[in-house]
Write a structure and sequence with these properties.
By secondary structure, the chain is of the alpha+beta class. The chain contains eight helices and eight strands. It has an eight-stranded mixed beta sheet with strand order 4-3-2-1-5-8-7-6, with helices on both faces.
């Protein structure tokens, strides 16, 4: 059965509300969120610039070339359509993309630093390449989009990209997964910043990355244990 647009819209609202609730967002609650309409080259994108009081109708339908097909979109969010579209094009398995200015991850972006894989949650979230840095380009511009594509190409095993001097772009199979990726990146950034006073975060040894993933998968395949 095809997923209705209303269901997709509500999933985006739920994902945005989750990020506000857990605090993985800037004080202004600025952000934008999109979800791919399954089996199409169209996306539903938030048409307003804040996650506050978002409603299912506050999303516009666009194609991956940026053409508005249904609804309306404000100038601020119209700027970033291609920032979302490039992720869907580069990673066709992606079902949703979220952009925030979450405080700790954005601090790395402002410092022109990627996030290394020092936090085990990154490994368990299939981000064994850490979070790469996309070099600066004006918001949503051709240069910005090109730099995002380059960052994605440089790190096959990631679910997020830091946007230099700007923020973070996270993605996943659906809005809940994209929101969770944003949260894990924010946690990793926060802990890495705190670790600086202790000499800096240490990357997980490369030979242990597969072992960590294998252990996760082993227990996942066994399923819930009951006595």
């Amino acid at each position: 059965m095809a997923i209705s647009h209303l269901t997709l819209r509500q999933a985006v609202v739920d994902g945005a509300n989750f990020l506000v609730r857990v605090g993985a967002i800037s004080m202004s609650h600025h952000g934008n969120f999109s979800v791919r309409v399954p089996h199409t080259d169209t996306i539903l994108l938030t048409a307003t610039s804040s996650f506050d009081n978002m409603k299912p109708e506050n999303l516009a339908l666009l194609d991956l070339e940026g053409r508005l097909l249904e609804g309306e979109i404000n100038p601020t969010n119209a700027e970033i359509v291609h920032m979302h579209a490039v992720v869907y094009k580069q990673r066709p398995e992606t079902g949703a993309v979220v952009h925030t200015h979450s405080t700790y991850a954005t601090s790395f972006a402002l410092a022109s630093r990627s996030i290394s894989c020092s936090y085990e949650a990154l490994v368990r979230a299939d981000m064994t390449d850490g979070v790469p840095l996309a070099r600066y380009g004006p918001r949503g511009s051709a240069s910005s989009v090109t730099n995002i594509a380059a960052a994605l190409a440089s790190a096959k095993n990631t679910k997020a990209v830091l946007l230099e001097n700007h923020g973070v772009l996270a993605f996943g199979s659906d809005p809940a997964a994209a929101a969770k990726a944003n949260l894990i990146v924010e946690e990793a950034a926060q802990m890495a910043i705190y670790a600086e006073v202790l000499g800096g975060a240490k990357a997980i040894p490369s030979e242990m990355l597969k072992a960590t993933v294998d252990r996760r998968d082993q227990f996942a395949q066994a399923g819930t244990q009951r006595a």
